[in-house]
Write the C-alpha cells for this entry.
Amino acid sequence: MLGISGTATTLLLLILGATVRADEPTTEEQMAANLGMSKFLVHFSRFACPESPSTGDKAECVAYGYQPVTDAFAKNEFPPIWVPVAGVSNDTEGYQKFLSINGSVPNIAPKGVNGVPTPNLAYDAAKDPDCWWTNTQCVTPKHDGVKADIADVPEPKTLGYGFDDGPYCGHNEFYNFLTSKGQKATMFYIGSNVVDGPLQAQRAVKDGHELCVHTWAHPSMTALTNEQVFGELWYTIKAIKLVTGVTPTCWRPPRGDADDRVRFIAQSLGLDTIMWKYDSFDWEQGTNGVTPADVQNNYNKLINDAKSGVLNSRGAILLTHELSNYTMQTAVDNYPKLVEAFDYIVPVGVAYNKTNPYAETSVTQPSFAQFAAAHGGPPAPSGSASSSPKSASGSPPAPSASGVKLDNSNSTKANNHSGAVTVRLQLPATILAFVGLAMTFAV
Ligand SMILES: *[C@@H]1O[C@H](CO)[C@@H](O)[C@H](O)[C@H]1NC(C)=O
Ligand SMILES: *[C@@H]1O[C@H](CO)[C@@H](O)[C@H](O)[C@H]1NC(C)=O
Ligand SMILES: *[C@@H]1O[C@H](CO)[C@@H](O)[C@H](O)[C@H]1NC(C)=O
Ligand SMILES: *[C@@H]1O[C@H](CO)[C@@H](O)[C@H](O)[C@H]1NC(C)=O
Ligand SMILES: *[C@@H]1O[C@H](CO)[C@@H](O)[C@H](O)[C@H]1NC(C)=O
Ligand SMILES: *[C@@H]1O[C@H](CO)[C@@H](O)[C@H](O)[C@H]1NC(C)=O
Ligand SMILES: [Zn+2]
C-alpha cells in the first residue's frame, strides 16, 4: 500500500494545502524549506496517526526532532521523503557502488516511469522472461546469477511472521503485545517512515525483531531505472543504519513488484528478497469494498490450511501490515488462533537459520533449532508431519543488542520541536484510501 503516483501526490498536496493555516507557527516550515522540503509534507504531521490509541499513548505520534536525522537532512544526505528516489549521482559512495554493479544488471527495460507502472504493458506471461512476480507470481529467477526469492519457510507447520510498511508512529501497543508474548517478527520498514520515526525504528531492534528494507518511498520497483531501484534500497539501508546502528540484509518489494533486474540490484546490496504466499489484504480494509470479514476470511484460510495439514511439509509466510490501528489490532486478535494452528511462529530469518540478521555481528537471533529447543522441543524433521509440542510463549535465546547504538530506547517519548524538526509523515487512513484509488496495483 502507500504507492504514490504523480497524480496521487498532486492530489495529496492539494488536500493538504487546504489544511495549512496561515497563523500557525512557521518554524517547521522554515526548517523544511531550508532542507528543500515541501511545507505541505511537514504539515502531514498535523494528521499523524488519527487512529492512534486513546489510551494515553498519543505522545508517540507527536512529531519530534532526532538530531542525527536532522543533521543528515541538513547535509543533504537523504533524498526527499515519500518521493521515488531520483538517483544517487549526488552521493559519491552510493554512485561508485551503483556504477560498480550497473554493468552486470540483467538487461530488462523498466516497466513504467518513476515508480508508476505502464498500464497494459505488453508482456509474454507464458514465457515470463523476467520472472515478473506482479504478472505471474514467479519467484524462481530466469536470469543466471539471480538469487531465488523466499516465499515460504522450509520448516513444517511454521509461520514466518512479519509486518510491512512500518515503523508506524502508534505501534507501541502492538509491540508491547508482541513482547508480552515473547514473539519476534520480521519488520519491513519504509525508509521515509524510518527517518520520521527513528525512535520507533530503534524499538524494533531493541525488542529483537528482524528489520528488513521496504524501500524509501514505496514505489513499484520494476517501474524505476536501475539507478532509482538502487537508490530506493540504498537510502533505506542508510536510514536504518543511521538510526539503529545495523545494516539490514533482506527486503520486500512493495506490492511484490520484482523482476530479475530488481532482484539482482537488491542482491548486489546484500539483500535477500522476501515475498509471501498468503495475503491478508489487511491494508485494503475500508477501501475497494474490502470489509473486516473479508480480511478475517484471509486469515482463516491460512489458519485452516495450517490445521488441515496443507503446511505439514513446508510452512508459510503471511503478508500483513503495521499500517494502522486496524491492521495491528487484527494481528493481535488473530494471534491466539495462529499459535493454536502452527507449531512455531518465527521471524522469517529464524526459519532460515539466519543467526546474523544484519551485516554487523553485534545483534544475533536464534537458529531454528535453538528457537524450537526454547519453545518446547526439537523441530520435527523436515518433510514429516510435526508432532512437536506447540508453544509460542516463553522466550527464545535473547538476541544480543550489545553494540547497537540506541540513543533513546524509549520510543513513547516525544521530543519537543525547539531544537530541530524531523518531518513526520504517516498517511492517515482517509488519505490512504484516496491514494488507493489512484493505484494500479494492490498491496
Ligand atoms: C487500537 O485502538 C483501540 C482504541 O483506542 C485500543 O484500545 C487498542 O489497544 C489499539 N490497538 C493497537 C494494536 O494499538
Ligand atoms: C543533485 O543535487 C542537485 C542540487 O542540489 C539537485 O538539483 C538534483 O536534483 C540532485 N540530483 C539527484 C539525482 O538527487
Ligand atoms: C546503467 O545501465 C543502464 C542499462 O544498461 C543504462 O541505461 C544506464 O545509463 C546506466 N547508468 C549509468 C549511470 O551508467
Ligand atoms: C537450519 O538448520 C537445521 C539444523 O539445525 C537444518 O536441518 C535446516 O535444514 C536448516 N535450514 C535451512 C533453511 O538451511
Ligand atoms: C517514556 O517516555 C514517556 C514520555 O516522556 C514517559 O512518560 C515514560 O515514563 C518513559 N518510559 C520509560 C520506561 O522511560
Ligand atoms: C525543548 O528543547 C530545548 C532544546 O533542546 C530545551 O532548551 C527546552 O527546555 C525544551 N523544552 C521543553 C518544554 O522540554
Ligand atoms: Zn508495503
